[in-house]
């Protein structure tokens, strides 16, 4: 933890899965915050691995491979045959997902500025045109905006579960203690599934009445509907950096952009 910084004295609760939770924890601590971890989803292999194996057996039949998360990118790399076969173009939701592929020597294109499934779908159509066939590797449970947009442009999309995100049933004791003693200033949500898992594990909205929810996107914030929580902060763009910037600006509005770690 930094000895100073715009979030000094604030306690943040990070609910995203590992290993990304650790990177967000480091970023928060560089801003001076105390950062607690409560990963509310555990990344596991898909319930039925056969569809993934079948898709990976003949990747050349697709015009592109679509990945909308770091977990999907890692699952894709684990499932690749050895030696690596010829691959169609790969498309990633953002630079961090693309970087995982780049680290394995695989080129990947990602949109600039907007990092969402909808933005990626729109960009793929601009890059590739309509009428193409894609393999979309994602979690067992996910939204269909990307699929719907591509199909509306005449594309065919083969959607295959590359992993599943299992809900965590209990909070770590250190986190439960911090909530019970009103020590948590903000809780960070990176998906609707993490919101649902976290609220189920907490069990009592009253423990969160002084905790500011901070959401990666408006879609993530929708999962808070019906719960008696403070109004959420929403990141300007769907990145951990922008999410932390929203927290910084909320709690320390006189800070400058230079305060945020790269």
TrEMBL record:
Pathway: Porphyrin-containing compound metabolism; protoporphyrin-IX biosynthesis; coproporphyrinogen-III from 5-aminolevulinate: step 3/4
Family: Belongs to the uroporphyrinogen-III synthase family.
Catalyzed reactions: hydroxymethylbilane = uroporphyrinogen III + H2O
GO molecular-function term, one example from the UniProt record: uroporphyrinogen-III synthase activity
Highest taxon in the source lineage: Bacteria
Pfam families hit by this protein: HEM4
Domain (Tetrapyrrole biosynthesis uroporphyrinogen III synthase): residue spans on this chain: 24-244
The enzyme's E.C. designation: 4.2.1.75
Biological processes annotated in GO: protoporphyrinogen IX biosynthetic process; uroporphyrinogen III biosynthetic process
Protein keywords: Lyase, Porphyrin biosynthesis
Protein's name according to its UniProt entry: Uroporphyrinogen-III synthase
The protein's role, per its UniProt record: Catalyzes cyclization of the linear tetrapyrrole, hydroxymethylbilane, to the macrocyclic uroporphyrinogen III.
């Amino acid at each position: 933890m930094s000895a100073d910084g715009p979030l000094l004295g604030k306690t943040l609760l990070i609910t995203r899965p590992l290993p990304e939770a650790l990177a967000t924890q480091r970023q928060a601590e560089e801003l001076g915050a105390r950062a607690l971890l409560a990963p509310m989803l555990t990344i596991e292999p898909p319930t039925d691995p056969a569809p993934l194996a079948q898709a990976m057996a003949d990747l050349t039949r697709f015009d592109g491979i679509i990945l909308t998360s770091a977990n999907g990118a890692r699952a894709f790399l684990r499932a690749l045959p050895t030696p690596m076969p010829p691959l169609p173009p790969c498309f990633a939701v953002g630079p961090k997902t693309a970087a995982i592929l780049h680290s394995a020597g695989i080129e990947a294109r990602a949109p600039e500025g907007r990092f969402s499934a909808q933005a990626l779908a729109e960009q793929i159509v601009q890059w590739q045109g309509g009428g193409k066939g894609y393999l979309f590797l994602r979690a067992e449970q996910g939204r269909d905006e990307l699929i719907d947009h591509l199909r509306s442009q005449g594309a065919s999309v083969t959607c295959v579960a590359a992993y599943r995100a299992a809900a965590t049933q209990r909070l770590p004791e250190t986190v439960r203690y911090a909530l019970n003693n009103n020590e948590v200033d903000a809780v960070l949500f990176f998906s609707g599934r993490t919101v649902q898992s976290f609220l189920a594990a907490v069990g009592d909205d009253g423990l969160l009445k002084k905790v500011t929810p901070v959401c990666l996107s408006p879609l993530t914030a929708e999962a808070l509907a019906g719960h008696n929580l403070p109004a959420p902060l929403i990141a300007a763009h769907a990145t951990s950096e922008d999410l932390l910037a929203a927290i910084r600006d909320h709690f320390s509005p006189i800070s400058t952009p230079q305060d945020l770690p790269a």
